[in-house]
Specification:
It is a single chain. By secondary structure, the protein is an alpha/beta fold. It has 7 helices and 10 strands. The strands form 3 sheets. The protein has a 6-stranded mixed β-sheet, with helices on both faces. Strands 1-4 form a two-stranded antiparallel ribbon. Helix 1 packs antiparallel against helix 2 and helix 1 crosses helix 6. The protein is globular and about 50 Å long. It starts with a helix and ends in a 9-residue tail after the last helix. This is Orotate phosphoribosyltransferase. Its cofactor is Mg(2+). Homodimer.
């Protein structure tokens, strides 16, 4: 769920302004999974815009402490959330670690990089939630390292039902700065898209794997 509606609307507006989120129902993107999608999200662009990255940093810092209490460590999910995770940890005066998709094949073969003690309370920072599978692999790695994962905070979620089910099964609370619903509401209000295109975007969100691109 979102931290609050005001933050969700402001974050969505920023993401559209800097083209971190692109909406193109008539010429859809192709995801790595092979899905056709009328939306593409690249939140790494946030780091290139000081006013936006500072806003995201501050909203994360404030709302993480409000929702989860102040943790011992902030963890970022590699690679998209490393940059913003460091900013959040710095703002909160906390240590930072990051989690690789899998353990390295050489050296110390770490999956969790940085200093983490067993029993420490950790909040995970993520840039984007789709199905949640890769994000929850990071949670699993932190738990295996002995961390007490208090929850996850992400910039944006597509709001798929499968993600909600996955987080529920993993017993992890997920809060986001913004989400798909607030994005579409704002995109229509600010005329980034037409009402017809909004309907197409809503249809895709219900069943992205079988979406019909005709509008």
């Amino acid at each position: 769920m979102i931290f609050n509606k005001e933050t969700a609307e402001k974050t969505a507006e920023f993401l559209l302004q800097i083209n971190a989120i692109k909406l193109n129902p008539r010429n859809p993107f192709t995801w790595a999974s092979g899905w056709k999608s009328p939306i593409y999200c690249d939140n790494r662009l946030i780091l290139s815009f000081p006013a936006v990255r500072n806003y995201v940093r501050d909203e994360f810092s404030k709302n993480i402490e409000k929702q989860f209490g102040k943790p011992d460590v902030i963890a970022g999910v590699a690679t998209g959330a490393i940059g913003i995770g460091i900013l959040v940890a710095e703002s909160m005066g906390l240590p930072f670690v990051y989690v690789r998709p899998e353990a390295k094949k050489h050296g110390r073969q770490n999956q969790v990089e940085g200093f983490l003690q067993k029993g420490q309370n950790v909040v995970v920072v993520e840039d984007l939630i789709s199905t949640g599978n890769s994000s929850l692999l990071a949670v699993e790695a932190l738990r295996e390292a002995g961390a007490n994962v208090k929850g996850m905070a992400a910039i944006f979620t597509y709001g798929f039902n499968v993600a909600e089910e996955n987080f529920k099964s993993a017993n992890i609370d997920l809060f986001t700065l913004s989400n798909y619903q607030n994005l579409l509401n704002l995109a229509v209000a600010k005329r980034y898209i037409t009402e017809e295109e909004e309907q197409t975007l809503r249809e895709w969100n219900v069943s992205p794997s079988t979406w019909n691109i005709e509008i």
